[in-house]
Every structure is written in C-alpha cells, then in structure tokens.
Amino acid sequence: MIRFLLKGLLRDRSRSLFPVLSVSLGVAITVLLHGWLNGVQQMMIDTNARFQTGFVRVMSQAYAENEDILPNDLALLHSDSVLQDLHSRFPDWNWHPRIRFGGLIDVPDNLGETRAQTSVLGWGLELLHPTLPAAGEYYTSEKAIFNFEPAMVAGHLPEKPGQVLLSYLLAEDLALQPGDTVTIIGSTMYAGMAVQNFTVAGFVRFGIQALDRRVLIADLADVQYALDMENAVGEIFGYPGDALFIGDSLRAMAGRYNNSQPQDNPFRPMLVALPDQMGLDQLLDIYDIFSFVIIFIFLLVMSIVLWNAGLMSGIRRYGEIGVRLAIGESHGTIYKHMLYEAGLIGIIGSVSGTLLGLSAAWYLQTYGIDISAFMKNTPMMIQDIVRARITRFSFIIGFIPGTGATILGAAISGLGIYRRQTAQLFKELET
Amino acid sequence: MNQNNVIIQLENVVKDYRIGSGYFRALKDFSISFGHGEFAGFIGPSGSGKTTALNIIGSLDQPSSGTCLVLGENISTISHRQAANLRNHQIGFIFQTYNLLPVYTVYENVEFPLLLLGLSDTGRKKMITEALEMVGLTDKIDSRPAQLSGGQAQRVAIARAIVKKPALILADEPTANLDVKNSHNILELMVKLNRELGSTFVFSTHDPKVISYLQRIIRLEDGRIVSDQPQKQEL
C-alpha cells in the first residue's frame, strides 16, 4: 500500500515536485539568512578582538578608566614581568603587548620643509622581536593576527628598527612611496614632546575603512623608544591558543586574575574580557535580539507559507479522499497517509533546501560580499568583505519550517476529513 | 420478498441537512428493502432524495433517525471504521464522473480496493485480470484515465467496483456523462454482471435509458417513495 501511494506521489508533480521545490526554497533562504547573520556577528567579534579588544586585554586600572583618550601616561609599567606572570598563569594563551597612540605624521619635501601633515593613529606591535613564545595554534603572532601578508599592497613588512607601515589610503593622501622618510610627532609617557623619524617600509590594506584611512604601524620597541616608554606598554592583548571562545569563561578568567591583584593600587594590571569592552556585550545582545526577531519573523512567514501549501494541497485532494473513503479506506488511515506524505515532502525539501542553503552560505563564507562602497566614511571596525558563517545550528534550523510547518499544514487540512460528512467530500469532488 | 433474502432494509428513515439556522429534510419516513441479486433503481427529479438514499445505503452518510440495515450492519450506529470496513468488503460504487484516480493506470485503479483487503500480488493480479476481462479493457491496463474515452473510463470504474465481487453495487447516475451507444453498452454490461456475480445493483438515476434496464423502479418525490413497482408495471 505504501509503495502504491508513493508511486502516486511521485507521478503527481503538484503533490511532490512543486511542494518539494517550495519547501527547498524556503529552507534554503532560512539557512542562508541564519548563516549570514551569524557571519556578520562573528565578523564583528573577530574584528574587534583582533584590532581593538583582544579576547581579553590587560591594562592598568587607571588606563582602563580613560582608555578612550589612549592615556599612555597611565601605561602598564614593568610590562616584562606582567607578561611573564600572564604567561605562567595562562600558558595556553598568546599574549601580545601593544602601544596605541595618537600623533601627527609630517612628510618633508626635498628641502626638509613640511610638504604634508596629518593626524594618525599609531600602533606599536611586536613585529621584530616577540617577547614570549607562541602558545597553541591560533593568534600566534601579531603578523598572524593582523594578517599582514595578504594585507600588503606595496613594499614589505618592517625588517629592522626604524621602519613603519602605513595604511594605503593614508599613503595615497600623503603621496608617499616605500622608502620615503616621515616624522612622527607625539607625546611621551611623561608628557614631553616626542619627535622621531621613520622610513616607510610598505603600505597595508586591512579592508576596514576605519583602519585603512589613517594608521601607522611600527615595531613595539621603536614606539617605546619614541614615546619614552621603556619596559612599559599601553595594553596587553590576550588570545586563546587553541580555540575561539567568548562569554562567561572569559569573565571568569578576568575575575580570577583581577582578584589576585592588590586592590588599592590604581596602576595595578586589570584584565578585561571581550564582552565587557566597548559596550560589546550590549551590542551583541542587541544583535542577538535583532537576529532572533529577524529569524523568528522569517521562520513564521515561511511556516505560514508552507503550512498554507500543505493546507491547499489537502483541500485540493478532498475529492480523492472521498473516493478512497468510498472504496473502503478509513478516515484514520487516510489522515495518517497525509501526514506521512507531508513528512516525506518536508524531509526531502528540508534536506535539499539545507544543502542548497549551506552551499550558498559556504560560498558567502568563502568569498563574502564586498561592502566597502557603503563603508567609506564609517569609523566602525567592520571589514569590507562580509562573510556568512556556517555553524552546527545551520544544519538543523531549516527543518523547523521545512518539516514542522508542512506536517502542521497537512495535519490541519486533514482534519477536514473528520469534520466533513463523507458524502460531502463527493459533492466537492463532482463540482 | 423472502425476509431471509433481504440485504438492505430501511425503516422510517429521516435525513435532515442543516442549512444555516434551519434544516432541509431530504428523506421523510423512508422505508424500503432490497433482496439479494436485485437490479433496482431510485428515480425522480433533482432534489427528490435519490442520492441521499444511495449515500445512506452505501454508509457514506448516516440517517438523522430511523433504521438502516445493510448486510447486517446498522448504518445509523456504525462507526467510521466499521463503515469503511463494510464498504471495503461488501460495497462497490460507480459514480457519474467515474472518480478514477488520475495519477494511476487502469490496472492500478482497479487494484486499489484489493490493496485495502491486503491480498497477495498473485491474488490481486488474477482478480484484476478477471475484472478487466469482464469489462473488455485488458488492452488498456497501462493507460491513464486521461487517455480513456468516457465509456472506457466508466468501464474502469465498474471494474473497480466489481473486482472484489461485492454483495452490493451502488451506481449514482452512471450514464449521465455518456452518449447513447456507450450508455447501452455500460448498462448491458451491468445486467450481465448482475447475472454472473449475483450482486445487488441499486441505481440512482433519471435517465430513461437506465430506467429501461431496471427490474424494479422506486419513484421518489420530495424525499418520499411514491411508487415501488417492477419494470413491467412501471412501463
């Protein structure tokens, strides 16, 4: 009997092919949408972690309280020992000291007079001599974190002290070439004036408009020398060595570390978890809510569409059901067969739709979509290429509308079998 | 009629259909019986209650009051499952619009009632072949309903109704969509099957061609039986 019914299902395209196609399409869109929203969220976390917050970040408490103005006069002193301490307490983590500073870049002409001048955001990174060996597989060095190799658009990475990288838009604005000399004018840790010449080693393009417009990157030791910050750093960025994780485990780690520090010293090292930095926690919460609302509305709409399709299919078949009842099939058996059929359509549609949606999501995960045209004037840390992200949930989310709603539609429309008089089904068949 | 021979007995049957806040009484104090092997029919104008009577006898509908016994089952109190079982084993239906399942072949349409009976492949094949031979459609077994003429489609419907050799065959306006020649062919076939199978045939019709073949004519008007006579007296 089941074989007989399957035969009919396969032959009747309005009951098999078209419902499967509509379920597939709905499920594919659901999976893709979920993957896309997930990817955007992950990109926000990852970009912030790489450039601004780390997964955890250690600063002096006083620095942390004023970090918006990059207060290097409140920097962490004895950074070597702080780093050693972090490494011994959290050996699976990679720790990268950085100095961020604001300053002016001055470009001289042939006579040594100022040809161009503008403000820059400077970064001192361990490019030449890492303090600590890498722990684990991920975020092993600043070169890996900043992904310099593909980001280089001209020249090369600093190979010796006194060399800097510039973001390519800044270099274009100042009409600089690799090998040119620039002067950085800033403020030392002790509020004195810092003036230091550097040679431009190359230009980088991170694909983040906020960085590509005005960033200068030098070796940490050079910046320490220029800003008179011997054995001092603004921040120490922490990255997990073996996996990517966020959330409460980071907060617990921060709690343990901070409780072990002397509470009465305003310059004590303070470890801050990623979710607690720059309002990221609230931002992610809002994003989660928006994502949930979007996904929920979409799931609801898809469910209603597929439910309606199941409903229409059931109503369209009242006549056939009437014949089957007349021939001697029971109400319950027909109802059960309708549910099996809807389940089969739903599962096939959900599987094919999930594969389709995952393929599209994989494409967007691999190649992404270039949104740089929309991000030219934004100060936000958002990459130019936005990608989808496939998670374990991506494999199952499509089954909610795909299978659930289809079966529900069939179940509700099938109730008509019970509600209507059998003879009435014949009248519907004959009209 | 010999009481032991009776397979259908309706006594004081009333059937009401709800229409808005009121109701329409389709059958009024309706009493009749049919014996084994009869070839009889309800005739009368539209709305006289022919199809309603047929639906109740076929356990597709239940009376609002009164008693309806069909092959030992009380249709007034029967459950959905029992009614399905009765139709499955004992009743064949022939409809005005054939009501073949369009996605299945002729063979499969005739096979469907046998699948419900749970018969083996071999048993089914033998019975289907016999039924299609009786209606003269063995050369069309792989055709779909859409590929058949009206007469051929009605023959398939008849084959489907008789394949399980039911005790009772109910035919609702079976020739309404057929031309004169096909109507006579179908009716002659039914007469032949009535003789060979011994099944009781009950028609609902107002087609003079059908009426001319009936051995017993029950004339209905306004939900009541106004006459019930053998063919010769009717004519």
Q: What does this entry look like structurally?
A:
The complex is a heterodimer of chains A (431) and B (235). By secondary structure, chain A is α+β, with helices and mostly antiparallel strands. Chain A has helices spanning 2-11, 17-53, 61-65, 79-89, 142-145, 148-151, 168-174, 209-212, 220-226, 248-259, 280-316, 318-327, 331-366, 399-419, 422-430, and strands at residues 56-60, 76-77, 93-108, 114-125, 152-155, 163-167, 181-187, 193-204, 215-219, 232-233, 235-240, 269-273, 369-370, 385-386. Chain A has a six-stranded mixed beta barrel with strand order 3-4-9-6-8-7. The mean pLDDT of chain A is 85. In chain B, the strands form two sheets. Chain B has a six-stranded mixed beta sheet. Chain B is globular, with a radius of gyration of 18 Å. In chain B, α3 (106-117) packs across α4 (121-135), α4 (121-135) crosses α5 and α5 packs parallel to α6. Chain B contains eight helices and ten strands. The chains are: A alpha+beta (431), B alpha/beta (235).
Write the layout of secondary structure elements.
The complex is a heterodimer of chains A (431) and B (235).
Chain A: H1 2-11, H2 17-53, E1 56-60, H3 61-65, E2 76-77, H4 79-89, E3 93-108, E4 114-125, H5 142-145, H6 148-151, E5 152-155, E6 163-167, H7 168-174, E7 181-187, E8 193-204, H8 209-212, E9 215-219, H9 220-226, E10 232-233, E11 235-240, H10 248-259, E12 269-273, H11 280-316, H12 318-327, H13 331-366, E13 369-370, E14 385-386, H14 399-419, H15 422-430
Parallel strand pairs in A: 4-9, 6-8
Antiparallel strand pairs in A: 1-11, 1-12, 2-10, 3-4, 3-7, 3-11, 5-8, 6-9, 7-8, 13-14
Chain B: E1 6-19, E2 22-35, E3 39-43, H1 50-57, E4 65-70, E5 73-74, H2 80-90, E6 91-94, H3 106-117, H4 121-135, H5 150-162, E7 168-172, H6 180-197, E8 200-205, H7 208-213, E9 216-221, E10 224-230, H8 231-234
